[in-house]
Design a protein that fits this description.
Number of strands: 0
Largest sheet: none
Protein name: DUF4197 domain-containing protein
Pfam families: DUF4197
Keywords: Signal
Structural class: mainly alpha
Order of helices and strands: HHHHHHHHH
InterPro entries: DUF4197
Helix content: over 70%
């Protein structure tokens, strides 16, 4: 009787161990990588996003011809756009939209070091959970930790870029034209604030594009660190 009990107990334990081993195989392993090294890999992925994707935004039409980030008119100005087109000022309306995007392109060129430093200084409290998160988890984390501070730094750059590309003069002329039309309500939008927010969204969007590439394409992991770290989430 005791022998039978021992045999059953042994079989049960062997079965349980086998099941536990199978479960363990399915769990993500750290491969000896600590939080610090995983965090370094995430920073490198974000750096690649800035280097390969955000720099595209600094080129002519980098915003204007990129459907992912093109800056459209805020709701308040959509009626301005439509009214000007209705009275034959479509070219002026087109130019107004284009210079908003030109200002963003110029500003991102000036502000790229801000993003580089933000990534360098960011601390990943739980790098492994971010690594095993969604396709843009690191970018979302970067956004949550830097957006408010970056907005304050980015806003004066946008303001300067408005002047540099002539956007302030064009929009002053455009809005004055609209406000002079009978039976319209005057508008006075804060375009610097609006374009700052849209430009920041565009930057984070393009960083996320590269993060997704690295997460989903082994060929995009072009350094040993990226290969080691992102292998954990495959």
């Amino acid at each position: 009787m005791i022998r039978k009990f021992l045999a059953i107990f042994l079989i049960f334990n062997l079965t349980a161990c086998a099941e536990l081993q199978e479960i363990a195989k399915q769990l993500p392993q750290s491969g000896g990588l600590g939080n610090a090294e995983i965090a370094s890999g995430l920073r490198q992925a974000l750096d690649f996003g800035i280097d390969k994707q955000v720099t595209k935004l600094t080129q002519k039409d980098g915003f204007f011809k990129n459907k992912l980030v093109k800056i459209l008119l805020p709701e308040e100005l959509q009626k301005v756009d439509k009214t000007l087109r209705d009275i034959g000022l479509g070219n002026l309306a087109d130019e107004g939209l284009k210079v908003l995007n030109r200002a963003a392109e110029d500003a991102v060129k000036e502000a790229t070091p801000i993003f580089v430093n933000a990534v360098k200084d960011i601390t990943f409290a739980d790098a492994k959970n971010i690594l095993l998160g969604s396709d843009n988890a690191a970018t979302q984390y970067l956004t949550s930790k830097t957006e408010m501070a970056l907005y304050d730094k980015f806003n004066p750059v946008i303001k300067n870029s408005f002047s540099k590309v002539g956007a302030d003069q064009i929009w002053e002329n455009l809005i004055n034209r609209y406000n002079s039309i009978p039976f319209t309500n005057n508008v006075n939008p804060d375009l610097t604030d609006y374009v700052t927010g849209e430009a920041l969204k565009g930057v984070y969007t393009m960083i996320a594009v590269e993060e997704k590439e690295i997460r989903n394409k082994v060929s995009s992991r072009t350094t040993d660190l990226l290969k080691r770290v992102f292998a954990l989430q495959d």
